[in-house]
Amino acid sequence: VQLQASGGGLVQAGGSLRLSCAASGILVSISNMGWYRQVPGNQRELVAALAIDGSTIYGDSVKGRFTISRDNPKNSVNLQMNNLRPDDTAIYYCNYAAPDSGNYWGQGTQVTVSS
pLDDT tens digit string along 14-27? Predict the structure, then answer.
């Protein structure tokens, strides 16, 4: 399993970014996928999760601003981030929750939001 995250960058507060996670070795259409983020010195936290049945979970701080979705033809999972705030600054990681063998992680992509 390989997860390749892209789309991070520098954006001003109030702006938008779209992260993409291209997967190989799995089919995202039948996988539990998610995005997490981590600030150095802090624990990694859930941003958004997308289950096989299409149900979603969002971290409290991103509800109403972020949207997770699948792109089945591209075998990828996207995170649309709107109305970004400086406290969204972090390294964002794509996650695949395998049913029997634990979690797989992408390499991370840096998101920096300036005030």
Answer: 999 999 999 999 99
